[in-house]
Amino acid sequence: MRSIRPWVVVEPPDSRGLRRVVVGEETVGRAWSAGELRRILGRLGHPEDLDLDDTAAFCWRGGDSGTWPDRPGRRHAVTALMVTGLLASMALNVVVGWPDALGALTFAQRINGILFVLSSAVLGAAAVAALDYGGKRQFRASGAIVLLGVLIALATDSLLLFMWLEETEFTPYVLVFMPLWCWSVWALCLLVRNRSWKEVPQPKRFAAGVVVTALLTGISLAYSTMYQPAAAPMHLTLKAEFGKARTDRSLGFLQVPLTLYMKNTGGIPVYILNDSYRVFGRGAVYSENPPDRDLTREWRDSAGRRGEDTGESELYVGDLTYTTISSGHFYGPGNRLEIGEEYTRKHVVQVPKSAKYDILGVDLTISYMRKDRGKIDVAEFKVPHYSWNKYDKQYYCSPEKGCLSQIYYHGRVWHNDNLVNLTRKPRYVTAFWSPGRIPDSLISPYDFRGKAGGVGKEKREWGRYGAAQADVNSEVSLAELLAPPTPLLPPGYSSQVPTLTP
């Protein structure tokens, strides 16, 4: 005997057009359409040709058997767009974090890289949850997981966009994170409007977890970019000293020992970008200064004849000339100096005995870069290129164009924060060296191919990569170098001549 109570109840459609199906007192499924309703009942053993309008068997609430407001095309498109954006964001976070997680030079930066890699795992889980959230939502927390993934994507894309706006240089990644930023804004608005977190069993704990994760990420970034550079200063100690001169009788030259010394006394390893030492001899014409001379003019003439912009002048010395005797690299571009590491070079300077020098001097100049801020392609940077080499068309510069004869060192440099690398054009470090000249080096987009920016940003890049320059100058009187050594006397022996008493 059939019960007068309908045994199938179809509830009103929800906001997405999904209708809950109840048999007896048990929910047996949810249907988007009449065909799906028949399949649900068919799995329970009922024939698929049931009369859906049979009021004795079906009770329709909020519409009849023809009320199916679902728009499957739009629903599938939204779900596909949500999943695609989450997967693309997952790939982007892997690209951002993986190099830092494996190869960053500081512990804090490696933690940042690991956080980006872990966040990509969350984005992958969110992509899987988006399939359920766009479907029948059998997992209650799927909406919250999708929301968390979208918030991570929005944070990453916003950070990349903010850093890109500092320089507004085109990179291939702009075509990735800018569309993803627009997508994340759309996805967040959609999820907030649908209150995707409402099915979470404990929404307050979920919100607290999101806040804690954001705080930890912010603290880690602040530590790596602000605290650590200040806590680990960079400093080099340089020394340049002449030794006692010796005469080479067979050649008629003076042999002057020179000791050059460098030590990393700071808290950060460094790359040497460029270095040079220059030994010079100073010649001068000495003059007495009678009281009737114009002293002001004497000072002015002395300062104007020095030949160098030193800001110095000497009253009794005029017609100053400076002649480079020896010049070269000290440690070499591209070499690294670890914390506490030191390097000493001993060099012998040959000075003709007939040379009219009164003073020997040495200038030692070194430019260097923090190793925790960037990584140089050392294999490329160490290769010297000669401006006069016609066969090296990339670096050749003819003297007819006003080019100096100099040696170039050029190589790619990467910032230690991969976020910077993704939002900037490639950066290169270039060093210029020629005998007797102050060495020069710069970090810029310039790559000797004429298409990658100019050299106008080198000062900003110099600070961004933590580059600096150190130098030391030393002078010694040639008379002092040639003075005979003071003989060593035995203990108790007096150097005074004894006085004879009659």
Structure description:
The chain has 502 residues and is α+β, with helices and mostly antiparallel strands. The protein has 3 domains: 8-60, no CATH class; 72-231, no CATH class; 236-480, no CATH class. 35% of the residues lie in helices and 26% in strands. A hairpin with an 8-residue loop joins β1 and β2. α2 (72-103) packs antiparallel against α3 (107-133) and α4 (142-167) runs antiparallel to α5. It is rod-shaped, with a radius of gyration of 39 Å. Mean pLDDT is 80; it is low at 226-230 and 497-502.
Quick description:
This protein is an alpha+beta fold and 502 residues long. The chain has 11 helices and 18 strands.
Number of domains as seen in the coordinates: 3
> Helical region count?
11
**Annotation, overall tally of beta strands:** 18
What separation lies between the terminal Cα atoms? 162 Å
The structural class is alpha+beta
What is the arithmetic mean of pLDDT? 80
The main pleated sheet reads as: 5 strands, antiparallel
Beta-strand content: 25-35%
Transmembrane segments: 77-99, 111-131, 143-164, 170-194, 206-226
Keywords: Membrane, Transmembrane, Transmembrane helix
Protein name: DUF4395 domain-containing protein
